[in-house]
Amino acid sequence: MPSLRPLAAELPEVLARRARWTVLEIGFWLAAAAAYFVFPNKYLIMTEIVIWALFALSLDMILGYAGIISLGHAAFFGFGAYAAGLLASHGIIKEPVLALLAAGGASTLLGFATSFLVLRGSDLTRLMVTLGISLVLREIANKWSELTGGADGLQGITMQPVLGLYRFDMFGRTGFVYSLVVLFVLFVVARRIMNSPFGLSLLAVKGNPLRAAAIGISVDRRLVAVYSLAAGYAGIAGALLTQTTAFTSLDVLSFDRSADVLLVLIIGGAGYLYGGLIGAVIFKFMQDWLANLTPQYWQFWVGAVLVAIVLIGRDRIGRWFLPARRVAEWIGRFRPARLFGGASAGKRA
Amino acid sequence: MAPVLETVNLEKRFGGIIASHDVTLSVEKGARHALIGPNGAGKTTLINLLTGVLRPTSGTIRLDGEDITRLASHARVRLGITRTFQINQLFADLTPVETLGLAISEQQGHGTDWWRIVGSRPEVIERTADLIDRFHLADVMNERTAVLPYGKQRLLEIALAFACRPRVLLLDEPAAGVPESERHEILATIEALPKDVTVLLIEHDMDIVFSFADRISVLVNGALFVEGRPDEVARDPRVKAVYLGEAFDG
Fold first, then answer.
1. Between residues A341 and B43, which one has the greater pLDDT?
2. Chain A interface, mutation test: which of B91, B94, B139, B162, most A Cβ atoms within 10 Å?
3. Given this model, what pLDDT does residue B180 score?
4. Chain B nearest CA to A275, separation (Å)
5. Residues of chain A whose C-beta is under 8 A from some C-beta in B?
6. How many C-beta atoms surround the C-beta of residue A19 within 10 A?
7. pLDDT for A12-33, tens place per residue?
8. Separation in Å, CA of A94 to nearest CA in chain B
9. Residues A18 and A195 sit within 8 Å (Cβ to Cβ)
10. Measured in whole angstroms, how far is the alpha carbon of residue A296 from the centre of its chain?
11. Are B92 and A174 in contact (CB under 8 A)?
12. What is the pTM of this model?
């Protein structure tokens, strides 16, 4: 039995275990930044990937951390997309970053307002309620064509330079850098939040809501908070799509988009924040590659992969790649502090 | 001495079934109070009513004289009434350190900190270390809870309730399902709980009840049947009758 002193000295390190940046993570972001130089003629598709990644990250916050299953997450994506479109086309907020924040704020409010419908009930209820909300929103956008352009989409969006400095170009270079920076900043914020006591309490609520309440956590309030936050993230993802393509249409609110984002997250794995990001890369490449291979049947293969992931299980698939995983874990164990000779690293982590 | 926890005419019906009937119970401050009774007597229902998992059909619950009948579970915890569960209710994917750190953050009012990294508050760290030590969890503190030996999970179950700094701690069969070899660790831990924490214990094992409790209430068919000191209850012929009738299936 170790005495109390060393234990107390060890705990901050142990508790912050999830919060430490690993070399693997730093490598991931360096690779993302390197994509700018390596694939100079792929900015458009890479921007699309970044937007999917942000959208899936937002779903991960509610599904992977709080256990809220949603089939209507496109409601917030679409709301943000239209908000950004309207702000730009009416010239209300011209600067893209401010407009992005405003669109995100609007989606957060929508998330807050609808969170109370999602709180109660089982997974099935939540599935249906979220689906319902997104369908209602899509129909409103469809019918209110004076505002949204209806089925023709929202025309006449002209984007001002980002921060008044960087013009959007036809190759999508500015769009890509802009989106990637937004993704990175929002990822760091999400990571920080999910590694706070609040984030830990979400995991507890997801794992056992009965016990979470029995240790004094007000479950409902935590869910409302994370649902609103995730809605804001989804809204910013939608706004990015509008801003980088200077267009938006009903498709941003479609059921397909809600289903696809779930697919993206499940491909990458929920509950560790990178799942949505990795899933987005795989999903987009798969779509691209399969569409080239079998233009008519690519969705068949996407479906087959999904069934395989769910039935065989990620763990078992992971085991097939065990040697690769060992290497990854080994690399992951090195932390910057250790590499750069910083503060002592824990033995137990 | 003033009662810290009281129920007045507490009644709970599920359709036609009366799970708790006219229960008027009073638990003294600092007491080691045991609640016993045959299977289906309504012991767990009573705990669920006390902690707000269930709402009573009628009647009142008071904590230190304050009416808490309508309060939500989490609000009661903040007022100082916490429980353990008969079947472990833990966070399978968190480690014991994280579980306790979380509960302590909540107890100290830092549960909604969303920008601080977990474990960056010295007062949380200190108490987490204390609980890890007090509940003999140091050797498994970084394992996922799901893979802990059952006895350790049971200890964590109690530690988690204790982390909320209860004034009243409700223990629902703390030793249930624990193998004989690991039992003493749990009993020793319960014995060592600070005296200012009032404990209401539900237990089937009469050895535990009689070695631990200074007051015993017997519940039969949802109603309070007998209440008294352990020696009084042990001598009571009605209690013997109830338990002899039970002895063969218990």
1. B43
2. B91
3. 84
4. 17
5. 1-2, 4, 7-8, 11-16, 18-19, 192-193, 195-201, 203-204, 207-208, 210-211, 213-219, 225, 348-349
6. 17
7. 888 888 888 888 999 999 999 9
8. 31
9. yes
10. 29
11. no
12. 0.88
Residues B83 and B92 sit within 8 Å (Cβ to Cβ):
no
Nearest CB partner across the interface for B93, out of A2, A203, A214: A203
Q: Please report residues of A whose CB lies closer than 8 A to that of B133.
A: 1, 4, 7
Confidence label for A318 from pLDDT (cuts 50, 70 and 90) = low
SS (H, E, C) chain B: CCEEEEEEEEEEEECCEEEEEEEEEEEECCCEEEEECCCCCCHHHHHHHHHCCCCCCEEEEEECCEECCCCCHHHHHHHCEEECCCCCCCCCCCCHHHHHHHHHHHHCCCCCCCCCCCCCCHHHHHHHHHHHHHCCCHHHCCCCHHHCCHHHHHHHHHHHHHHCCCCEEEEECCCCCCCHHHHHHHHHHHHCCCCCCEEEEECCCHHHHHHHCCEEEEEECCEEEEEECHHHHHHCHHHHHHHHHHCCCC
Q: What is the pLDDT of residues B22-39, one digit of tens each?
A: 999 999 999 999 999 888
- Cβ of B114 within 8 Å of Cβ of A200? The answer is no
CA-CA distance, A289 to A283, in Å (whole number)? 10
CB contact under 8 A, B72 and A213: yes
Asked whether B33 and B215 are in contact (CB, 8 A), the reply is: yes
**Tokens 């409700």 map to which residue?**
B170
Quick one: tokens of A285? 């490449």
Q: Where are the domains of chain A?
A: 18-340
Among A277, A234, A259, A294, smallest CA distance to A111 is for A234
- pLDDT single digits (tens) A124-134: 999 999 999 99
Q: Which residue of B has its CA nearest to A199?
A: B114
Given a contact cutoff of 8 angstroms between Cβ atoms, the answer to whether B35 and B51 are in contact is no
Task: Indicate if the pLDDT at residue A329 is higher than 70.
Answer: no
> How near does any CA of chain A get to the CA of B245, in Å?
35
How many angstroms separate the CA atoms of A32 and A26, rounded? 10
Residue A61 pLDDT greater than 50, yes or no: yes
Query: Measured between beta carbons, which residues in chain A are less than 8 angstroms from residue B93?
Result: 203, 207
A204 contacts in B (CB within 8 Å)? Answer: 91, 94, 99, 102
Contact B118 A19 (CB under 8 A): yes
pLDDT of A349 strictly over 60? no
Cβ density class B229-241: b for 16+ within 10 Å, e for less: ebeebeebeebee
